[in-house]
Amino acid sequence: MATALLDELGCGDAVQRAESWRYSRNAIRALSQLDFAPAAGDAVFDAPLREQFEWPQTRGRRLVFVNGRLAPALSDLVDADASVATPTTGVCTLRLGPTAGLVHLVHVAVPGATATRWQARLEVEVAAPRACLVEHQVGASGADVLGVLDIGLALAPQARLEWVSLADLPATTSLVRRATVSLARQAQLRSTHAVFGGRLQRLELGVAIRGEQARLESRGVFVLRGREHADIQLDISHAARDSACDILWRGVADQRARAIFHGGITVEPGADGSDAGLSNKNVLLSPHAEIDTKPALVIHADEVKAAHGATVGQIDERALFYLRSRGIALAAARRMLVAAFCAEALAGIDDAALRERIEALAAARLPAPEGAP
Amino acid sequence: MLKIENLHVRVAGKEILKGLSLQVNAGEVHAIMGPNGAGKSTLGNVLAGRDGYEVSQGSVTYDGRNLLELEPEARAAAGVFLAFQYPVEIPGVNNTYFLRAALNAQRKARGEGELDTMQFLKRVREKLAVLHLKDELLHRAVNAGFSGGEKKRNEIFQLALLEPKLAILDETDSGLDIDALKMVAEGVNSMRDPGRAFIVVTHYQRLLDYIVPDVVHVLADGRIVESGDASLAHKLEEHGYAWIAERRVAGAA
């Protein structure tokens, strides 16, 4: 059963799958023990879950999927230059037009009576000179839900997209996202991923920089506690001259949480003039938490600038004492330092209201209240 | 206000303070001078409650309470302030946010009402004006990218804002140019008050030309070996610390 789920979710041959899922094998094995029934696309849910995504700011610009299926009654794109098509193939296509502005794309995981799972595929085409896609994953506590979402994102030449991805999940929700992104000539993608909670969150972000002078800026933060498990797999490929990627991720794990960060960058032959940078810093708040980080740069071109750095450390005791010596209580001081640590990765979000919302969610998650499991 | 009796402190297994006794009354300014490694910074850190300082003997009573039992934040709320020798850079934490959180946490712990944004900013502006500081300081992250002098000024600004009852200045003068030194001294002098005490830890007598202490102590090898009035600082400047050591040897003989 474990192999069945892994066969289904993993890409490549058995060796590649085993390597890529190495640190999450136990998590997926535990998940395999569950007997998943298909999740209902017409599941109803109550107000607290609804309030998580019904932001006044995105009214008229929102697309909602329930357990992977488009929920027209909850969706409204009247104010956005965007269109959505859901042919019977099950692939949903979202087109962001030249004046798309912000589009709020919500996936809601609604638990059933027993363990359930859903699967969906979404294609996003961006021709806009400037657009903002807020991809938002929420769920309610209850029986286990496993969601598998494939996202295809194509940026046309000179398109610019800000992709803000917020996955704020309860400890009974698992989510596997496989994003395949391609950037055409002079396209610019700035993505900011906030990965909060979840029993198992796996994010595969594969970006093919195909066009000259295209640029990827990937920001991200994961904040985990309890027995939450997140597995971030970045795979960036530079296939064109003078392209750039700038990756900055921050991670925080408390209690018995576990995180994996794989930052893979490949510069293909001929992609001269590429500039690749990767920074991943992590903080462990508990001796039982674990974070494995691995930058992997493979360079096949000559004229390339590449830099990487990855660290796992503890909260700065000197800073903690400094704050406490001014009267700030230990828990508040820890929260302040963790929030500051994450802030750098969220600073790129242009929309201040959105940024503050995500910062507040991050701050609220940590450090966990005293005595929690 | 503060009574330290026979204090023995170990750091990483090594005894640094070896029976230090000191009494500081409200309204007084005490200077503590001494050579490198005498235990001056240890004294400040142990009073502020830093981890890793093991008190093996002795007592510290502050306002009638056992200071050593209190968490660092409780000491701050009780009115103890340490101006750090090496203020810590905290990128990502805005200075104004930090100061307001600190002040309100202290007020809350004392059962006083928290200040709202307007009240807080009014108080901040008053203090900035007294210290001739620019409000640009407020918009930056705590000490991040500050020069050595700016960090020390920020310590004095925090001192002015938080209005502690007992302020310990740990080599606040080190690395300061003469203008910054004067500013620090002016800040301290403007806060001298019958209800407030200062312990000024320094290597050099220079700062004490501007902050004239009531009592000068010489700390050597973990103990106070000599106390006197402000003129003691000048004698030290003239003769060096070796002079004290010679006098002790002579005294013992």
**Record field, number of beta strands of chain A:** 20
Number of helices of chain A: 7
In terms of quaternary structure, the protein is heterodimer
Q: Number of helical runs of chain B?
A: 10
State the shape of chain A. Answer: globular
What is the typical, i.e. mean, pLDDT of chain B?
92
Largest interface: A-B, 23 and 31 residues
> What would the principal axes of the Cα set say about the shape of chain B?
globular
Q: Structural class from helices and strands of chain A? A: alpha/beta
Low-confidence stretches of chain A: none
Reported for the largest beta sheet of chain B, the result is:
6 strands, mixed
Number of strands of chain B: 12
Question: How would you sum up this structure, described in words?
Answer:
The complex is a heterodimer of chains A (373) and B (253). Chain A has 373 residues and is α/β, with parallel strands linked by helices. Chain A has one domain (2-316). Chain A contains 7 helices and 20 strands. Chain A has helices at 2-9, 14-20, 25-32, 47-53, 317-325, 330-346, 352-365, and strands at 37-38, 62-66, 69-70, 82-85, 91-96, 101-109, 116-126, 131-139, 145-155, 160-169, 173-183, 188-197, 200-209, 215-224, 229-238, 244-253, 258-267, 275-284, 290-299, 305-314. In chain A, the strands form 2 sheets. In chain A, strands 1, 4, 5, 7, 9, 11, 13, 15, 17 and 19 form a 10-stranded mixed sheet that branches. A 10-stranded mixed sheet of chain A has the order 3-2-6-8-10-12-14-16-18-20, with helices on one face. In chain A, helix 1 (2-9) crosses helix 3 (25-32), helix 5 (317-325) crosses helix 6 and helix 6 runs antiparallel to helix 7 (352-365). The longest helix of chain A is centred in the C-terminal third of the chain and has 17 residues, at 330-346. In chain A, 48% of the residues are buried. Chain B has 253 residues and is of the alpha/beta class. Chain B has 10 helices and 12 strands. Chain B has helices at 40-48, 72-77, 95-109, 117-130, 136-139, 148-162, 178-191, 206-210, 231-239, 241-252; strands spanning 2-11, 14-24, 29-33, 53-62, 65-66, 80-83, 90-94, 141-142, 166-170, 197-202, 215-220, 223-228. In chain B, the strands form 3 sheets. In chain B, strands 6-9-10-3-11-12 form a 6-stranded mixed sheet, with helices on both faces. Chain B has a 4-stranded antiparallel sheet with strand order 2-1-4-5. A two-stranded antiparallel ribbon of chain B has the order 7-8. In chain B, strand 11 and strand 12 (223-228) form a beta hairpin. In chain B, helix 6 (148-162) packs parallel to helix 7 (178-191). Chain B is globular, with a radius of gyration of 18 Å. The two termini of chain B are 36 Å apart.
